[in-house]
TrEMBL record:
Stored InterPro entries: EF-hand-dom_pair (IPR011992), EF_Hand_1_Ca_BS (IPR018247), EF_hand_dom (IPR002048), PPIase_dom_sf (IPR046357), PPIase_FKBP (IPR052273), PPIase_FKBP_dom (IPR001179)
Species in which this protein is naturally found: Turnix velox (Little buttonquail)
GO molecular function, one term: peptidyl-prolyl cis-trans isomerase activity
Highest taxon in the source lineage: Eukaryota
Protein keywords: Calcium, Endoplasmic reticulum, Glycoprotein, Isomerase, Metal-binding, Repeat, Rotamase, Signal
Protein name in the entry: peptidylprolyl isomerase
Domain spans labelled PPIase FKBP-type: 1-72
This enzyme's EC code(s): 5.2.1.8
SUPFAM superfamilies: EF-hand, FKBP-like
EC class of the enzyme, as a word: isomerase
Organism classification: Eukaryota, Metazoa, Chordata, Craniata, Vertebrata
Gene encoding the protein: Fkbp7
């Protein structure tokens, strides 16, 4: 939404819940430069709760005009895993992910509270280090599994 992002396009990862489910579905298989007008029912938007204290009322059907500017490989690609895995041991250490986060923060240039890095790093391990060994394996990183609609 250019109106919510100081006139700039909104970037997000498709299929991981960063936007409403209806947008995730509507944008599947779009190509850069493609435009779509989509109508999203309440069940795939904000449902009976609505959103933002009345900005979007309960049971609202949403209409979007979408233009896709670019597509980048998502963070769960084999290429991304290999880029983070600096020592090529097929598992991601806290140090490797910490370095990757520092590089990404520097690349996007957004100002963040100094504690954001540590909070995000802890959250990554909490959500992905399923066996608690202090590393995120390719399987835990979900390189080989894909959630299909």
């Amino acid at each position: 939404s250019r109106t919510q992002n100081e006139g700039h396009p909104k970037w997000f990862v498709l299929g991981v819940g960063q936007v409403i489910k209806g947008l995730d579905i509507a944008m599947m298989n779009m190509c850069p430069g493609e435009k779509r007008k989509v109508i999203i029912p309440p069940s795939l938007a904000y449902g009976q709760q609505g959103y933002a204290q009345g900005k979007i009322p309960p049971n609202a059907t949403l209409i979007f005009e979408i233009e896709l500017y670019a597509v980048n490989k998502g963070p769960r690609s084999v290429e991304a895993f290999n880029q983070i895995d600096k020592d090529n041991d097929k598992k991601l250490s806290e140090l490797e992910i910490s370095q990757y986060l520092k590089e990404e923060f520097a690349r996007d240039g957004k100002k963040r509270h100094p504690s954001a890095h540590d909070e995000i790093l802890a959250d990554i391990f909490k959500k992905n280090d399923h066996d608690g060994d202090g590393f995120i394996s390719a399987k835990e990183y979900n390189v080989y599994q894909h959630d299909e609609l």
